[in-house]
Write a structure and sequence with these properties.
This protein is an alpha/beta fold. It is built from 11 helices and 8 strands.
Length: 313
């Protein structure tokens, strides 16, 4: 884990392109993700932001938090609008109306706007190979509209539309594999990231933006409001999600998978679940189901990484 513990704050730009003073909840991890994103991307960037928590808390007049050109788009079409921006930039450059230097085009959506409502537009953008970085900040539910379940909500988590009770154990389905779906489009670059590992995340943003074609980064970003956890625990939760294997960090590029943090052993999932109120109803049998599933998925991912690296030689 040495490369995740290097103190490198002096290497990060001092300019704040995602300004403080916005209206995010206390302990909001997605807001941290956006701050890190723009630290890495820099001012030569344009953002298409889907409706969701980060759009709502950052764009209310006159308290705009964005220091780069930014557009609020519908829940479902951030990828399509970003693709339009990319095409428009090419046309203007071809006609000599703007400089021909590279401009970073970034689309941003939450798990609801990405896993569910915006998946068709995202798939289209990825298939076309447009030079756009799509960032999904994943807080595992529709937090902006009232903590409703999404297909990014993990199994057995209690939400307002998958409430845990005597008849229903919470969310009934397993979480959708967004990064795997993106990789299946054979795009230029895919990565998972966590707010608990900011330098890893920012390095992945830089790598993605330096790669031409469609890119996707899926960042894990806890929501203390929706998860019924303490705001002070968001980084602890984000780190435990990685250390338990429920959210592994990896990259996909050129058909090859690489584990960003290949852990020799995983912490028990119970250490992650017990500090979240959305899981307080879990039985030992339910915890075992979660543990067995993540063990299977983690071993599969490690095997996929080893096989793809071997075939690439």
């Amino acid at each position: 884990m040495e490369k995740f513990n290097v103190f490198a704050s002096k290497l990060i730009p001092e300019a704040e392109l995602f300004s403080p003073g916005h209206k995010a909840c206390q302990g909001c991890a997605p807001a941290l993700a956006l701050r890190y994103l723009l630290k890495a991307a820099g001012p030569n960037s344009m953002v298409a932001n889907a409706t969701g928590c980060m759009e709502i808390i950052s764009s209310a007049y006159p308290d705009m938090a964005w220091g780069v050109p930014w557009i609020h788009v519908a829940f479902e079409n951030a990828a399509a609008v970003a693709g339009g921006l990319e095409s428009g930039i090419k046309v203007l450059q071809r006609k000599g109306k703007i400089d021909k230097g590279h401009i970073n085009v970034i689309a941003i959506g939450g798990d609801g706007g990405t896993f569910d409502i915006g998946l068709q537009a995202l798939s289209g953008m990825l298939e076309r190979g447009q030079d756009v970085l799509y960032l999904c900040y994943d807080n595992e539910a529709y937090m902006n509209t009232g903590i409703q379940r999404s297909s990014g909500t993990p199994i057995f988590a209690s939400t307002t539309t998958s409430p845990a009770g005597k008849s229903v154990p919470g969310q009934r389905t397993f979480k959708k594999d967004l990064a795997g779906i993106a990789a299946a489009h054979n795009v230029s670059y895919v990565a998972t990231a966590s707010v608990a590992y900011p330098f890893d995340f920012m390095e992945k943003v830089k790598k993605a933006l330096a790669t031409r074609g469609s890119k996707l980064i899926h960042i894990f970003a806890p929501c203390p409001t929706g998860w019924k956890s303490q705001p002070k625990d968001i980084i602890k939760l984000a780190r435990l999600a990685v250390q338990t294997g429920i959210f592994p960090l990896y990259e996909y590029q050129g058909g090859v998978y690489n584990m960003s943090l290949d852990l020799p052993f995983l912490k028990p999932i119970k250490t992650y679940l017990k500090i979240q109120g959305r899981y307080r109803h879990l039985t030992d049998d339910m915890i075992n189901i979660i543990q067995e599933d993540l063990n299977l998925r983690y071993d599969w991912l490690k095997g996929l990484a080893a096989l793809s690296q071997q075939e690439a030689k």
